[in-house]
Amino acid sequence: MSQPHIVATVTTEDAVAPSQARGTWRTLCKRGDLVANSGVVAWLDGVQIALFHLPDTPQGELLFALQNKDPQSGANVIGRGIVGHLKGALVIASPLYKQHFRLEDGSCLEDPQQQLEVWPARLQGDLVEILIAP
Fold first, then answer.
1. Does residue 20 register a pLDDT over 70?
2. What is the average per-residue pLDDT within 95-116?
């Protein structure tokens, strides 16, 4: 399997102003690096983060940031998964074992023992940012 398309590599030197003592917003990439209704992957301090941009939902434009490592296989493949709806939730289907993870909170619909780490994500003009806890 080929490597995911990495859109950006971010290190601690790229940190931006803290947000209300809840963490620090970190820039991962630019809006133009995102692929609508699909995933791309960015590095943050050695961790792969899968970003999913859904520009045309009934709720408006949405952006999600989840760990790229599949908890069942250990492979960094979540960013290659298929975005969809299942049981009333927006999900990403892992490309290996096909388990479905909620984009909102990273929970697995088929196995509650599996969980993806998630980060709050936002678009700030042309920048894609995630909130890193202190």
1. no
2. 96
For residue 13, the SS3 value is: helix
DSSP 8-state class, residue 22: S
Q: From CA 33, how far away is CA 6, in angstroms rounded?
A: 9
Q: What is the mean pLDDT of residues 69-80?
A: 97
Residue 4, pLDDT > 60, answer no
Distance CA 79, CA 35 (A): 11
Q: Are 117 and 78 in contact (CB under 8 A)?
A: no
Q: What is the 3-state secondary structure (H, E, C) of 78-102?
A: HHHCEEEEECCEEEEECCCCCCEEE
For residue 108, what are its two tokens?
A: 């697995």
* Residues 131/22, Cβ–Cβ less than 8 Å: yes
Tell me the C-alpha distance between 95 and 81, whole Å. Answer: 5
Which region, left, alpha or beta, applies to residue 72 given φ > 0 means left and ψ of -120 to 50 means alpha?
Answer: alpha
H or E element that contains 134: none
Please give the single-letter amino acid code of residue 84.
Answer: G
